[in-house]
């Protein structure tokens, strides 16, 4: 398996394929409870724009993407309307004595591993690659996870993420998780 930063159109298209397969509305109730799910849907144009400023972290096996962990910089907060409430919430969350939106962070926009490759350590390796690539530029990695996505919450906590805030918007109840790299 190869961990790398996405640099080809085919890799971005593979991310979108895996994302579509793991959308909550594409999964059985049992599968979503056991394996987790993704909520946000990206277009190719959005993911290409995100990748142009910060390369997306991917896992490849036999030249095919089998997992990804997206990088979403603050400047892209308005690209995906469903994520705007999360970014707005950052202005009220305190972390280390400061408002979160004033800290040097980026958002891990979504992480997903193809079903056949789950429970093989790829989730952890994707985040290790994030830290290797981006901890030299950022102090924190922040993400949000649906309260009903317990597999994802547990996996993030195992890596060292801490839930620092919970809020509800029109779509769901969300946990803001922070990984402090200091």
From TrEMBL:
Residues 14-180 form the N-acetyltransferase domain. It is an enzyme of class 2 (transferase). Keywords: Acyltransferase, Transferase. PROSITE patterns: GNAT. The keyword S-adenosyl-L-methionine does not apply. It holds the Pfam family Acetyltransf_1. InterPro entries: Acyl_CoA_acyltransferase, GNAT_dom. Its EC number is 2.3.1.-. GO terms for molecular function: acyltransferase activity, transferring groups other than amino-acyl groups. The keyword Transferase applies. This is GNAT family N-acetyltransferase. It comes from Zunongwangia pacifica.
């Amino acid at each position: 398996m190869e961990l790398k930063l996405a640099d080809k159109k085919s890799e971005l298209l593979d991310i979108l394929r895996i994302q579509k397969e793991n959308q909550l509305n594409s999964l059985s109730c049992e599968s979503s409870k056991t394996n987790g799910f993704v909520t946000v849907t990206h277009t190719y144009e959005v993911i290409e724009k995100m990748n142009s400023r910060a390369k997306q972290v991917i896992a490849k096996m036999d030249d095919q993407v089998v997992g990804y962990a997206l990088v979403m910089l603050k400047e892209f907060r308005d690209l995906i309307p469903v994520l705007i409430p999360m970014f707005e919430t950052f202005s009220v969350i305190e972390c280390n004595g400061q408002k979160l939106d004033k800290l040097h962070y980026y958002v891990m926009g979504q992480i997903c591993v193809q079903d056949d490759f789950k429970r093989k350590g790829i989730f952890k390796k994707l985040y290790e690659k994030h830290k290797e690539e981006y901890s030299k530029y950022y102090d924190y990695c922040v993400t949000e996870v649906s309260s009903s996505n317990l597999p994802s919450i547990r996996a993030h906590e195992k890596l060292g993420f801490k839930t620092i805030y919970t809020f509800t918007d029109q779509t769901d109840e969300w946990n803001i998780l922070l990984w402090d790299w200091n």
